[in-house]
Amino acid sequence: MSWETIFGQLSWDSLVFSGAIKHPSTSEFVASGAGSIVILGAIGVVVLLTVMHWWKPLWRDWLTSVDHKKIGIMYIVIALVMFLRALIEAGVMRSQQLAAADGAGYLSADHFGQLFTTHGTIMIFFVAMPFITGLMNYVMPLQIGA
After folding, report:
1. CB contact set of 133 (below 8 Å; sequence gap of 6+)
2. CB atoms within 10 A of CB 104
């Protein structure tokens, strides 16, 4: 099986990291840093779950649970994780506005527009909606006595 069969036209040059290595600019370093943090965070979570032997309890007690409280808590935790991501984006956008007061800033206009759009989308669809759903999932059965 060849590379083209699996990935099609996707190549190493298509990734954000490769562009920052070949032609460094501040905007690409910001994107590379964010991508690196995500990858290192995911590796850290996998290592923590493996070292602490939490894979089985995570699967047995949480991911396959039908308990409304645990499901609500999982919704709320995901909403808080995404809120942290959106908060970091907001900080990057505000620092860009501060840096651009005297000059061009460190982000391109296109990258700032992408940050603005993803920040709004994340806040509505990945923070507000899961948080409300998790809260309803946790509280509503308690209110009706189920």
Report:
1. 75
2. 11
Which of 90, 91, 84, 93 is closest to 41 using CA atoms?
A: 84
- What is the crossing angle of helices 68-99 and 109-121, to 10°? 160
The mean pLDDT of the chain is 86
d(CA 35, CA 31): 6
Q: Which amino acid is at 125?
A: F
Model confidence at 62: pLDDT above 60: yes
- In terms of pTM, does the model score above 0.90? no
Q: What are the sequence ranges of the domains in the chain?
A: 1-64, 66-146
Distances from the Cα of 110 to the Cαs of 28, 69, 96, 107, 113, in angstroms?
Answer: 12, 42, 13, 8, 5
- Give me the pLDDT at residue 108, please: 83
